[in-house]
Specification:
Structural class: alpha/beta
CATH topology: Rossmann fold
Number of domains: 1
CATH superfamily: P-loop containing nucleotide triphosphate hydrolases
CATH architecture: 3-Layer(aba) Sandwich
Strand order of the largest sheet: 3-4-2-5-1-6-7
Shape: globular
Bound molecules: adenosine-5'-diphosphate, magnesium ion
Length: about 270
């Protein structure tokens, strides 16, 4: 059965898009059919695959405002097992209008229902806010990955995000669970990074992925080459770290299949 994973944080520049693109590509590289959905109106995902603004046909905008079926919004990438849905650039005004009315919170969840089981993993790249679009993504999602940039203020504002997720779970999506918090742009040679890593691991006890994403030029070059890091240079530290993250997630699933009653509830409590 397909799993929908939202990549979210209200902070910008923490590595949400980089994680969405490279983790999706890693799943595909490992043989899993993967779809990436861009919920950020800035539309950086399409750029990561070398698509220009005018190469895009339908995207999330058309799905939301014109009820274009999801199947008609899916775009191919150079990897057979990896597809994506672009956001299309749209204004705040459209964002607000398209997300009003009955069942607005469930727009994405309902739109994805016909294709959910055609993929092993569906990842959603969220915008840097706690607005309607992130809300839609978290209601559609089965699980959640929160990138945390390895810097001094890493945990600042996380409280608000956790609180919002808790109330969303209670009200709309009780089964939503944390896949994990992901440390990004890590430089382990640096003492400040080491202190931040220790603090994040201590504060979020057991919910932080073992895999950490290093600061790596190949990851920053993704939009430039229009290809995920696994396609630019599979052996780079950046590509290897996202492949390791994909394997860690697959191991979480294997462990869960082994236990008769998985205890993942406490994670998102
Ligand atoms: N691990 C990394 N190493 C080097 N640069 C990175 C890394 N992760 C992200 N970046 C760069 O940092 C910037 C912000 O990352 P991005 O993924 O766009 O964050 P977000 O989607 O959370 O706003 C981008 O320019 C991106 O290329
Ligand atoms: Mg982004």
């Amino acid at each position: 059965m397909g799993e929908i994973i939202a990549i979210a944080s209200q902070k910008g520049g923490v590595g949400k898009t980089t994680t969405s693109v490279n983790l999706s590509a890693s799943f595909a590289q490992l043989g899993y059919k993967t779809l990436l959905i861009d919920m950020d109106p800035q539309g950086s995902v399409a750029t990561s695959f070398g698509y220009g603004r005018y190469d895009i046909r339908n995207g999330v905008l058309e799905m939301f405002t014109k009820d274009v079926p999801v199947q008609e919004c899916i775009h191919p990438t150079e990897m057979d097992l990896f597809h994506f849905i672009p956001s299309n650039v749209w204004s705040d005004e459209v964002d607000k209008r398209s997300l009003m009315g009955a069942a607005a919170e469930f727009k994405l969840k309902n739109a994805l229902a016909p294709i959910k089981n055609l993929y092993d993993y569906i990842l959603i790249d969220c915008p840097p806010s706690l607005g309607n679009l992130t809300f839609n993504a978290l209601i559609a999602a089965d699980s959640l990955i929160v990138p945390i940039q390895c810097e001094y203020y890493a945990l600042k504002a996380l409280g608000r995000f956790l609180k919002m997720t808790r109330s969303l779970k209670t009200e709309y999506n009780p089964d939503l669970r944390y896949r994990g918090f992901l440390l990004t742009m890590v430089d382990t040679r640096n003492n400040l990074s080491k202190r931040v890593i220790n603090k994040v691991r201590y504060t979020l006890q057991g919910l932080v992925f073992d895999t950490m994403i290093p600061r790596n030029i190949r990851l920053a070059e993704v939009p430039y080459y229009g290809k995920p890091a696994v396609m630019i240079d599979k052996n780079s530290k950046g590509a290897q770290s996202y492949l390791a993250l994909a394997r860690e997630i697959l191991e979480q699933d294997a462990r869960q299949d082994d236990t008769s009653k998985p205890n993942t509830e406490s994670a998102a409590a």
